[in-house]
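Is 2-acetamido-2-deoxy-beta-D-glucopyranose placement plausible here? Inputs below.
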Amino acid sequence: MLEFRVLLVLTAFLFAPKPSLARAPYALRISCGARDDVYTSPTNTHWYKDFAYTGGIPANGTVPSYISPPLKTLRHFPLSEGTENCYNIKKVPRGHYLVRIFFGLLAEPSFDNEPLFDVSIEGTLVYSLPSGWSNRDDERAYVEGLIFLKDGTSTLCFHSTGHGDPAILSIEILQIDNRAYYFGGGYGQGTILRTDRRLNCGAEKPKYGADYSADRWGGDRFWNSLPTFGENSDKILSTTKSIKQSSQPPNFYPEALYQNALISTDTQLDLMYTMEVEPTRNYSIWLHFAEIDPSVTEAGQRVFDVLINGDLAFRDVDIVSMSGGINSALVLNKTYAVSGRSLTITLHPTKGNHTLICAIELLELVLAESKTLPAEIEALQKLKGALGLPLRLGWNGDPCVPEQHPWSGVDCQYNRSISKHVIDGLILDNQGLRGFLPNDISHLRHLQSINLSGNSISGGISSSLGSIPRLEILDLSFNSFNGSIPESLGQLTSLRILDLNGNSLSGKVPAALGGRLLHGASFNFTDNSGLCGIPGLATCGPHLSVGAKIGIGLASLVALVLIATCLTCWWKRRQNILRAQRIASRAAPYAKARTHFNRDVQMARHQSQEHAKTAAENGPSLLA
Ligand SMILES: *[C@@H]1O[C@H](CO)[C@@H](O)[C@H](O)[C@H]1NC(C)=O
Ligand SMILES: *[C@@H]1O[C@H](CO)[C@@H](O)[C@H](O)[C@H]1NC(C)=O
Ligand SMILES: *[C@@H]1O[C@H](CO)[C@@H](O)[C@H](O)[C@H]1NC(C)=O
Ligand SMILES: *[C@@H]1O[C@H](CO)[C@@H](O)[C@H](O)[C@H]1NC(C)=O
Ligand SMILES: *[C@@H]1O[C@H](CO)[C@@H](O)[C@H](O)[C@H]1NC(C)=O
Ligand SMILES: *[C@@H]1O[C@H](CO)[C@@H](O)[C@H](O)[C@H]1NC(C)=O
Ligand SMILES: *[C@@H]1O[C@H](CO)[C@@H](O)[C@H](O)[C@H]1NC(C)=O
Ligand SMILES: *[C@@H]1O[C@H](CO)[C@@H](O)[C@H](O)[C@H]1NC(C)=O
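Reply from A.M.:
I modeled the complex. Tokens:
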């Protein structure tokens, strides 16, 4: 049995702000729950008001973390409205984007619970809020994914997991370079990079890209500060000199990122930093260096190895020679599969005594889910309209993904040959559905079972159902279907269970269905207004086609005309006879006389013959 899940939709048609410069990246920021546009300091960032959305409740929020944008409102989604909530943002140009969602807490004393829920971007589950996120002053208060958008929309969904109402503070969709964070094989549409953390080593406080006056193609990244690796093993190094090779495509790292660093001290020559990670995931690790130590003046003076969890990742890194000089940025990236819960980066000097590092980025590689076949999504949308699906069922975004949160009432299957999810079951029994069953249901080509039992669906049974090749179970019982069972259902060679009981169907059950019963299928046609034609049901009257009916009608008409004509003739003839008789009886003396006369004559002749005989015996006759 499919677990019933209630959905709620949140749909909007937001229009992209027109870029003023040809090179300016697309940028959309929404302040959730806001009734007016908001501008936040210190960079006067423009947040669009949250209009044209339906569902959820705008409310005042508290900002749990200093890293959140200073927004005062949020939108939250009470469980009573369903467990699946999406923002569908339309008209987003095709491209590569940084999508970021901040979470908030409801500013109401009665709601002091920290909500825990799942977040998906474009159908891929990217984040499950960890408990304690609202108490931590770090990246746990938002989720960010780097993703390619190609169909003009961006769908962001929040999935309740039964731990409080999802509450969303803001949504940002910021275009970045098409090759941003290119890490080699596997890069592209099949992968979403979820930002786990960005750390600016030696920085005193966290900053956004905007605070660093970074290039807008950098996606206004948030850089948390890492003032020390701990254990008194390092010290902060900083410079005001300009940094070459910063703000370069594809990543446009801000110059300020390289103007401070952590450098190892004499007590501990290795620099070592351990981060907590999710086990058995793949991470893309980005390390940033610049030789800002004035005591190093040329290549060969500082050379070190980089190890990730003890595995050699980069051998003999020489910042000066690799970046092309002092005060010049060097970026190294490595993809690494972690098995445990920690990830340790070690910089081990091989030449010279100290090592240094400017920034660390950790991004999780998330395989993008394969979406549902578009034709089937479209068919489900038509069905949603035709059946008047209640709001609580939602049905928005992708029906099958994330796999952990499919649409309620929809069973999915991954089809390897087309690399898409397809719908193989539609289980919407007892959902208070009304309306009718549209022909579009047959576009769900991969359906194997349909259960719409116990609703109030009316109208005829769509004959297109007969063209769903592998339909095995069709339960339309206890609805208000009328008309006859379409002949096409006889083409469903895989049909095992057909429940049409409890409707207002009439007419003959297709003979092909009757035949199927012999092969162990289970059909139920009881409680209808008048079905006939198979054992157990009434026998049907002669079944005639329309043509035959017209034929019979015409023949009957001709017969009627013929009978009428005959009757008229007979009647007329009879009238003539009667009239003749009447005339005869009036002027009859003559006719009658004649008759009599003839008879008389005959009699006479007879008599005369006898007479003659007599005469011959007795003498000559008197008559001539
Ligand atoms: C939000 O707070 C403002 C005052 O800051 C208040 O006027 C408004 O009614 C509050 N809105 C809600 C939904 O509580
Ligand atoms: C990341 O590393 C890969 C493989 O080492 C390299 O091909 C790619 O160019 C690097 N990416 C960037 C943006 O430097
Ligand atoms: C990590 O990457 C390897 C090699 O690309 C792949 O086989 C594996 O499935 C990935 N693991 C996860 C959890 O994505
Ligand atoms: C390493 O450190 C020692 C002592 O601090 C110093 O004498 C030596 O010159 C350093 N070596 C290099 C290559 O900087
Ligand atoms: C996958 O889809 C194709 C095309 O619709 C279909 O022919 C095939 O039978 C499907 N395979 C499975 C296992 O459902
Ligand atoms: C369809 O749903 C009804 C109501 O839940 C259930 O009784 C019936 O067994 C289902 N039909 C099939 C064929 O499973
Ligand atoms: C079926 O019912 C609808 C109203 O629900 C009516 O318009 C239609 O004529 C009926 N069809 C038949 C074949 O009785
Ligand atoms: C058919 O459905 C009726 C209810 O409409 C039920 O009483 C009957 O038991 C069913 N027959 C079979 C064979 O399942």
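Short version: Helices lie at 319-323, 374-386, 511-517, 546-586, 588-618.
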